[in-house]
Specification:
By secondary structure, this protein is mostly beta strands. It is built from no helices and eleven strands. The strands form two sheets. Strands 2, 4, 5, 6, 9, 10 and 11 form a seven-stranded mixed sheet that branches. Strands 1-3-8-7 form a four-stranded antiparallel sheet, with no helix packed on it.
Length: 121
């Protein structure tokens, strides 16, 4: 079973920066990809950024050039560095992990509880 725990959300002024972290814990799995999604009030959850074990990166157009996703594979941890934050970045940010179990090669997917990012002056 994969368990995820996010940290790093909070209140920041427009133009500011925040760094989110998400650590995967548990045993019996190998991570294939980790990523960040967000959901603003009244909107659907959307992809922000994903990184695969092979370091293939995917970003939403709205965050390209401002956000950077990275991982520490040894720690099964993914980071999201968010710079030049805008009010429209305000949302709950959710960590996601795509994994394969070491027994029976079952596909596993996990979501973190979410962390709130508020961009406001």
């Amino acid at each position: 079973q994969v368990r995820l725990a996010e940290s790093g959300g909070g209140l920041v002024q427009p133009g500011g920066s925040l760094r989110l972290s998400c650590a995967a814990s548990g045993s019996g799995f190998n991570i294939n990809a980790m990523g960040w999604y967000r959901q603003a009030p009244g909107k659907q959850r959307e992809l922000v950024a994903v990184i695969t074990r092979g370091d293939v990166l995917t970003y939403a157009d709205s965050v390209k050039g401002r956000f950077t996703i990275s991982t520490d594979n040894a720690k099964n941890t993914v980071y999201l560095q968010m710079n030049s934050l805008k009010s429209e970045d305000t949302a709950f940010y959710y960590c996601n992990a795509d994994a394969t179990s070491t027994s029976w090669s079952r596909h596993l997917e996990a979501w973190g509880p979410g962390t709130l990012v508020t961009v406001s002056s």
